[in-house]
Design a protein that fits this description.
By secondary structure, the chain is an alpha/beta fold. The protein contains 10 helices and 14 strands. The termini are far apart.
Length: about 325
């Protein structure tokens, strides 16, 4: 009985020590820029601070999407003695020297939207790129109401890797699963310019009168297409899917000119980064392996230093108001 009591006492002391250690940690999140999208990242890290008992977690963003400004913020944070830096890099390579310095000082380094980031302990991704593209085309077909239809794909540009990976995956998936679905033309690089997407949609409506779907990878493609449908008063005739933040998509989702926004939650990425950082700082890096269950997020796939979730967020006219980014 005495041994059991002593063992229990040791467990209590150990648990209290771990909690006290966590309560001493200071973590900073440095996104690309201050924006509604990254405001959700801040919401996620602040909630994780409470849930995981971290002393201080805060976010500081550069005034513009400038790699030099971002690096200066990171360097200042290191000088101030933070325990963790969590970064969405504007330029992956420019961050490497600073990340190296941080890790040499025992600072945990986590990134998001930067797979295979050199000198990061781990990179967190909330979507599987191939599955994301497949999910998007499945959603489009469902909204069209038929797999025997004509559709078009918008991307931000032909050189944005993620957009074109998603487009490739969507097209490949459609060829197998929906052989009667017809891509009327190659992808159009207009999806980061709302007016360009609007104008392109108007032209496509003239060229392809049977067009039934627009799949837009990029923040402004779907709103631009939706605006064109409003102008033509045909919002119920063509399905529009995009990767637009809920706040920007809200009015279009509300009136049905845009059917769905498919994206992911930056806040969930922030939660994952805080949890992983705590494990590293607690000396429990060995737990970061296949089968790890991150509270509130589930079990990711872990390959090298990439922590990969498959958690696409699908927003429509019924739930857009639940999201503030």
């Amino acid at each position: 009985m005495r041994k059991l009591f002593l063992f229990a006492a040791v467990l209590v002391v150990f648990g209290a020590t771990c909690l006290q250690a966590a309560e001493k940690y200071t973590m900073i999140s440095v996104p690309k820029i201050r924006s509604p999208w990254f405001n959700d990242l801040e919401v996620g890290i602040l909630k994780a601070k409470v849930d995981f008992g971290i002393k201080e977690v805060y976010q500081q963003a550069p005034a513009s999407a400038d790699e030099a400004q971002q690096v200066r913020i990171i360097e200042d944070a290191i000088s101030q003695g933070v325990n963790t830096i969590m970064v969405v890099p504007n330029d992956a390579n420019s961050c490497v020297p600073t990340f190296t310095r941080a890790r040499q000082q025992g600072i945990a380094v986590l990134t998001h939207e930067s797979p295979n980031q050199p000198e990061a302990d781990y990179d967190v991704e909330m979507i599987d790129n191939v599955k994301f593209g497949e999910h998007a085309i499945d959603t489009l077909v469902k909204d069209i109401g038929s797999d025997n239809a004509e559709y078009v794909i918008f991307v931000g540009s032909l050189t944005v890797p993620a957009h074109n990976i998603w487009a490739d995956a969507a097209i490949a998936h459609a060829k197998v699963k929906y052989p009667n679905l017809k891509l009327v033309a190659d992808r159009f690089p207009v999806s980061e310019d709302r007016n360009a997407a609007r104008q392109q949609t108007l032209e496509l409506l003239m060229t392809y009168p049977n067009l039934k779907g627009v799949l837009a990878f990029g923040s402004q493609g779907a709103p631009g297409a939706a605006q064109a449908l409003r102008e033509k008063n045909i919002i119920n005739n063509i399905a529009v899917i995009g990767t637009t933040s809920p706040n920007e998509a809200a009015s279009f989702l509300k009136d049905g000119s845009m059917n769905h926004s498919v994206l992911w939650s930056p806040g969930e990425a922030g939660r994952a980064m805080v949890y992983l950082a705590k494990l590293i700082l607690d000396g429990e890096r060995a737990k970061i392996k296949q089968g790890l269950d991150i509270p509130g997020l589930g079990v990711p796939t872990i390959s090298g230093n990439i922590i990969l979730f498959d958690r696409p967020l699908t927003v429509d006219g019924t739930n857009y108001s639940q999201y503030d980014f």
